[in-house]
Amino acid sequence: MKLYTKTGDQGKTSVIGGRVDKDDLRVEAYGTVDELNCLIGQAVSLIMDDPHTSFKQSLQQIQHDLFDLGVDLATLAPKVNKISLAKVEFLEKRIDEFSEQTPEITYFILPGGSPLAAALHVSRAVCRRAERAVVSLSKLHALHPEAIQYMNRLSDYLFAAARWVNHLEQIADIRYESGLAGSP
């Protein structure tokens, strides 16, 4: 089977149940979710240590969940919701666990730290963009509410995970300071 089909050369693409324009909000939503999935895969590739094994497995499960979400978003007449409330609750549980293990935060922090934490922050930012695309799509087409809930919780999870990774690696959060003295 060839990778190219030439069927998209006129600006259309196939989705489950038909064809749409390549700039359709549906394609934007599942395409941004796919981009997020790639970035999380990049973060996974940075995990080398045994203490992060269960975290790596969690991120890989999230990658599967994002693929499932992409299928839901790419379906013109969604019948099955692959993103369940249990998946949202899993993220909430992990956020709580990360938060219990990191110092309380009472200020804005700059993204960064270790390479893994920085990759998680980039993933978080793209997750927020994906969430906005899913919300926009939901205004035009019926989506299961768990799709938006999952994306919202996932961005919080990625933020909490980045802080947790930095904490484990003994890298302090960098406090954002407005109008930092000496800046241009």
From TrEMBL:
Keywords: ATP-binding, Cobalamin biosynthesis, Nucleotide-binding, Transferase
Pathway(s) the chain acts in: Cofactor biosynthesis; adenosylcobalamin biosynthesis; adenosylcobalamin from cob(II)yrinate a,c-diamide: step 2/7
Catalytic activity: 2 cob(II)alamin + reduced [electron-transfer flavoprotein] + 2 ATP = 2 adenosylcob(III)alamin + 2 triphosphate + oxidized [electron-transfer flavoprotein] + 3 H(+); 2 cob(II)yrinate a,c diamide + reduced [electron-transfer flavoprotein] + 2 ATP = 2 adenosylcob(III)yrinate a,c-diamide + 2 triphosphate + oxidized [electron-transfer flavoprotein] + 3 H(+)
E.C. numbers: 2.5.1.17
Protein name, UniProt field: Corrinoid adenosyltransferase
Top-level taxonomic group: Bacteria
GO molecular function, one term: ATP binding
Record GO biological process: cobalamin biosynthetic process
Domain Cobalamin adenosyltransferase-like: 3-165
Quaternary structure, from the entry: Homotrimer.
Keyword Nucleotide-binding: yes
